[in-house]
């Protein structure tokens, strides 16, 4: 294996020949370099896509900062090279390496991989291959790093079970420390008789860590998933996600890249979790409970980020920013503190029903660009089905207020392919966009612009829609053609996605363990960068299914019965399947469920906080509908089942 010095020498010759060599050099402001020889545990953090995207991944940046705060740990970064750099690396037999010290990834103790979405799977295999690490977990020995993965897509990790040693289910800030401690202790005690299987058994005892090799999947005669069996008595079942009870202080010492990335700004997370209950929304279901950072902490974080990075744009992040309790106070405080610094502050993920006039007035001091809203559907029927209770009148009133305060562009996000959707519901999307444009022209004239982003619905695990089937490719194309015809002309813009790419996302997000062979076969046929249109290779995936002996429609176009066991059920998000079942049945009736911060998870009974405190102060509220169930207040604005 090459030494870092030898690797750097070869890089010096290669980098002038590739696009954006700054992707591969490291050395940026705020990177952390520690002494390799004297640091006990070495962690490589890999984002399996190019630097331009990976540098904007907040989760990996948080782990990088937290791990490097420990004197006994070093954390370094790695990304997947673009095709020209990959070709050069393979020609010169250069392994995938870390940016900070140019050590090959195979030299690290732990390789942590971020998997926020499913289309990173083949690039993950490609990265392991480039690193010289065996693709299959079963083929790795004590000389190889422990390969762990986390991120939103790992709430159903089964399609990647064969390639990852252990998955982190849930939030990583605390569990990553426990994994590092376990690896360090285990290697210290077992240095002479190191057995990888013993390490994996030890890791499985950490709450929130799933070691797939300790379980075996079983299937019914019709191909549906039957059950998962523990192969080791001590292995937990179910595996419950990790939750960070109190958010740590925000990251502020962001690494400042040399090259343009997708988000050249400092992201500050103001709130985690959402309880609005949109039935299609995976993130809203798995990120509960809601936790908010205090206004003062956010303002101090912004000041620190500006001082340590020089960024002139700050993004205040959450799943639903306008639901942040003190959002107007926060925006006012930011403007007061940074008004003279020409700072641009964005507040994405605003909800129509919680965007108030006060909030828009508070935002008016910022730079005027686009204002984004997500109605998701355009008819009352569809909004009731998906649990997005926003009226057209409410949307138009909100648009009017936005345009009148100087924003020239409103971006509207919709989704097609929802359950029970018709072409009339899709036509309503075009009609609504035109109505919003009319409102804009009444307010600011011809400067008004409406950009419609229309994605395609994928039924995700752990959501009320996990039972429904995907819309067919022909139906999706017909709906897209309708929108292309209708949303033309000055002031209107339409963006849509490839239905075949949606099929891939659905296969992988809803797959079982048998999908691992499909992922491997697709990679062997050249699949990688599946989220990039110029690389997406649908034929490779079709051939992979044929080789694996699986039918792709089984995962996408099959309606699930209510009693079906899902291949992800052994992983608990703490939202009960009975709740999801009830909410799915409510969707069939067009029945709305209000914000879960105002109701009991167990049954939908709506106690007020006054009722809870009056009946059983300090003990919780006894649910009258569910025997022996109590609900307790864990946070000021949240009632959860106890």
Mean pLDDT equals 91
Percent of residues in β-strands: 15-25%
Number of helices: 21
Rg on CA atoms, Å: 25 Å
Number of strands: 22
Q: Looking at CATH, which topology of the domain at 4-221 would you report? A: Rossmann fold
Written overview of the protein:
The chain is an alpha/beta fold and 642 residues long. Among the domains are: 4-221, Rossmann fold, CATH 3.40.50.280; 246-367, Transcription Regulator spoIIAA (2-Layer Sandwich); 573-641, no CATH class. It has a 6-stranded mixed beta sheet, with helices on one face. A 4-stranded parallel beta sheet has the order 15-16-17-18, with helices on one face. Strand 3 (110-114), helix 5 and strand 4 form a beta-alpha-beta unit. Helix 10 (327-338) packs parallel to helix 11 and helix 17 packs across helix 18. The chain is globular, with a radius of gyration of 25 Å.
Short characterization:
By secondary structure, the protein is an alpha/beta fold.
Provide the descriptors you would attach to this structure in a database record.
Transcription Regulator spoIIAA; single chain; globular; 642 residues; 22 strands; alpha/beta; 4-stranded parallel beta sheet; 6-stranded mixed beta sheet; Rossmann fold
């Amino acid at each position: 294996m090459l030494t870092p010095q030898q690797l750097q020498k070869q890089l010096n010759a290669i980098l002038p020949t590739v696009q954006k060599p700054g992707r591969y050099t490291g050395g940026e402001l705020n990177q952390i370099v520690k002494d390799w020889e004297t640091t006990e545990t070495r962690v490589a953090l890999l984002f399996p896509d190019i630097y331009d995207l990976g540098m904007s991944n907040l989760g990996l940046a948080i782990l990088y900062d937290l791990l490097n705060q420990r004197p006994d740990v070093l954390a370094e970064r790695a990304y997947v090279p673009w095709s020209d750099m990959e070709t050069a690396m393979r020609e010169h037999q250069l392994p995938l390496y870390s940016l900070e010290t140019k050590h090959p990834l195979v030299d690290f103790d732990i390789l942590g991989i971020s998997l926020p979405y499913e289309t990173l799977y083949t690039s993950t295999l490609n990265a392991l291959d480039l690193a010289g690490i065996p693709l299959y977990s079963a083929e790795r020995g004590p000389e190889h790093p422990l390969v762990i993965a986390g991120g939103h897509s790992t709430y159903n990790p089964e399609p990647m079970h064969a390639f990852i040693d252990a998955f982190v289910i849930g939030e990583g800030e605390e569990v990553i420390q426990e994994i590092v401690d376990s690896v360090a202790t285990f290697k210290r005690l077992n240095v002479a008789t190191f057995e990888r299987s013993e390490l994996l058994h030890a890791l499985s005892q950490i709450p929130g860590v799933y070691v797939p090799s300790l379980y075996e999947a079983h299937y019914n005669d019709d191909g549906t998933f039957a059950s998962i069996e523990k192969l080791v008595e001590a292995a937990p079942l179910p595996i419950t996600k990790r939750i960070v009870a109190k958010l740590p202080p925000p990251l502020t010492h962001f690494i400042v890249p040399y090259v343009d990335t997708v988000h050249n700004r400092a992201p500050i997370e103001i709130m985690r979790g959402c309880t609005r209950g949109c039935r299609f929304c995976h993130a809203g279901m798995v990120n509960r409970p809601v936790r908010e950072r205090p206004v003062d902490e956010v303002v101090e974080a912004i000041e620190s980020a500006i001082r340590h990075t020089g960024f002139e744009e700050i993004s205040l992040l959450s799943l639903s920013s306008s639901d942040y309790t003190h959002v107007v106070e926060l925006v006012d405080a930011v403007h007061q503190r940074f008004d003279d610094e020409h700072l641009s502050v964005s507040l994405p993920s605003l909800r129509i029903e919680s965007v108030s006039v006060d909030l828009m007035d508070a935002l008016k001091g910022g730079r005027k660009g686009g204002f984004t809203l997500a109605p998701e559907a355009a008819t009352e029927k569809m909004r009731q089905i998906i649990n997005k209770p926003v009226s057209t009148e409410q949307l138009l009133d909100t648009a009017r207020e936005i345009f009148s305060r100087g924003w020239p562009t409103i971006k509207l996000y919709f989704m097609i392919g929802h359950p029970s959707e018709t072409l009339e519901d899709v036509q309503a999307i075009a009609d609504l966009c035109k109505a919003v444009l009319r409102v804009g022209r009444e307010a600011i004239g011809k400067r008004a612009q409406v950009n419609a982003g229309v994605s395609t619905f994928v039924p995700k695990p752990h959501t009320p829609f996990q039972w429904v089937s995907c819309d067919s490719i022909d139906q999706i194309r017909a709906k897209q053609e309708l929108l292309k015809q209708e949303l033309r002309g000055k002031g209107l813009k339409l963006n849509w996605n490839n239905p075949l790419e949606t099929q891939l996302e659905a296969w992988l997000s809803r797959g079982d363990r048998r999908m691992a062979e499909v992922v491997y076969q697709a990679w062997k046929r050249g699949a990688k960068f599946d989220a990039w249109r110029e690389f997406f290779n649908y034929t490779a995936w079709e051939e992979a299914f044929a080789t694996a002996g699986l039918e792709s429609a089984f995962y996408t176009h099959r309606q699930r019965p209510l009693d079906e066991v899902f291949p992800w059920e052994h992983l608990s998000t703490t939202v009960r399947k009975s709740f999801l079942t009830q909410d799915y049945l409510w969707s069939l009736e067009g029945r709305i469920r209000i914000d879960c911060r105002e109701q009991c998870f167990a049954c939908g009974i709506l106690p007020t906080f006054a009722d809870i405190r009056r009946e059983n102060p300090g003990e919780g509220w006894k649910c009258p509908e569910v025997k022996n169930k109590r609900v307790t207040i864990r946070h000021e604005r949240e009632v959860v089942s106890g």
